Amino acid sequence: MMHFISFMIALSLAGFHTSADYLAGDIEKPAAETETAKTDTEVGTEKEAEKETEAGSKDYQNDPLYPYIAQQNKLVEKDGVQYITNPENILVLANKEYSLQSSYSPPDLVRPNVTFSFGDAQVEKAQMRKEAGTQLEAMFAAAKQDNLTLYAVSGYRSYQRQQEVFSAEVDAKGESKAKEAVAVPGTSEHQTGLAMDISSRDQGFNLTEAFGETPEGQWLQKNAHKYGFILRYMKGKEAVTQYQYESWHYRYVGKDAATIIYENDWTLEEFFQHVRALQKKIDGGMAK
Ligand SMILES: [Zn+2]
Questions:
Q1: 102-119 pLDDT per residue, tens
Q2: Domain-by-domain residue ranges, the chain?
């Protein structure tokens, strides 16, 4: 329960309205947690910490989120921007709050052997990090088995390229509209080499919201997690991700994390809110 309450506090601190939608995604509580509901004011008190038993502390290690405590962003603040100092982390959380440094490019980019919307052109955006690329190949092959041809449209994008894309959008639509649609340089997941935009022939290989309703888009929503990918910017979670719904943007996080995220209907932000809540709980337990 404390886990859950911490999460709710984290959400309200972040300025989000808590609602039943968030409740629905809460993970199963550890077996040792049998306390009844507490009010928010009780959380974090000495009294609370005393209630945690030794058995309870060990139980945290069985929490499916426990392995991910070590995979949170490590940060350094410069000029009011939070920069990620462990960007090679497969679970790196790059968003409007956490930036990649302009100097970061992934160490192990490869060109996956999949169908691209641009054919054989040797371009930067054909690349992904090795592990993500291998799983992308497996995912595209599995879709093919189901008679669906996926097309990779855009993968790795360097900081410099993102800057060009962003500037073009600002010129076309103005800065605030641009920020809604295009990531500010350093905040794009494409710079991690772990994201791929995907489309289909009947969408003209374009990145369209309607792709989510096609057999290819539906297949991905149901199966991507088996290959370690998540639909990153979900419909209805715009307030959390601070991005519009993107039916085409898939992010590699590894199979285990992707399955947890999929089963709980979380965004990557929500996943780490839960990881942070677990960490707080453990830290609280150790502080006694
Ligand atoms: Zn994308």
A1: 999 999 999 999 999 999
A2: 2-69+271-286, 105-264
